[in-house]
Specification:
By secondary structure, this protein is an alpha+beta fold. It is 46% helix and 23% strand. It has a four-stranded antiparallel beta sheet with strand order 1-2-3-4. It is elongated, with a radius of gyration of 18 Å.
Length: 83
């Protein structure tokens, strides 16, 4: 039996910003299937995995770019030279 898992808050926020889920919905993964569930009405609908993958990749890229930026600032502040 597959375990149900609510996606991370970061991904849920991006889905809401992009208008893909409402403020009352969360997205849950079961195996390789995703569905949006309205937590107030308990109504459910399938969400295409390609949409989740795209939002996840954008979120991961944003995090990586932020980390790279922070590293550059830290490196400059600490005068670290490349090897």
């Amino acid at each position: 039996m597959s375990v149900e898992k609510v996606l991370s808050n970061t991904i849920l926020e991006q889905l809401r910003i992009n208008g893909l889920i409402s403020e009352n919905e969360v997205v849950i993964s079961v195996g390789d299937i995703y569905y949006a569930k309205n937590v107030l009405s308990d109504q459910k609908r399938i969400v295409e995995s390609a949409i989740i993958d795209q939002v996840s990749n954008v979120t991961i890229n944003e995090i990586l770019l932020s980390l790279i930026g922070l590293y550059k600032i830290w490196k400059e502040k600490n005068k670290i030279k490349q090897l």
